[in-house]
Write a structure and sequence with these properties.
The chain has 69 residues and is mainly beta. 7% of the residues lie in helices and 28% in strands.
Length: 69
Amino acid sequence: MRVLEPVPGFEVRRVQPYQATKRYTCAGCARTIEVGVGHVVVVPLDAVDLRRHWHWGCWAARDRRRPVG
């Protein structure tokens, strides 16, 4: 099982494949996270409406990536 390290100022949650009932766009690579794919949800504690969904690999590499866009 992958370990989610705490990130100050954010709540980081694991979404299991059976919980992934919608398609999302990954904040790390701008590709689609399909229904049924486990991923990570990151919620800023001071702005919960700005939550973002990430592929596992994109979240793990977030410090080594260029911003999307």
